[in-house]
Amino acid sequence: MQKTDYKDLKQTPEAVASATKALAANATHLARLLQASQYPAV
Fold this sequence. Notes:
Elements: H1 14-36
């Protein structure tokens, strides 16, 4: 394990912040696509 936990950092590393932003954008995009195609079919 690492010596420093993520929650203990004073500032979020840029790589982590950009990855989190991309993850949120991709999840939102996927949710909108699934909603538009009425997935799951009812």
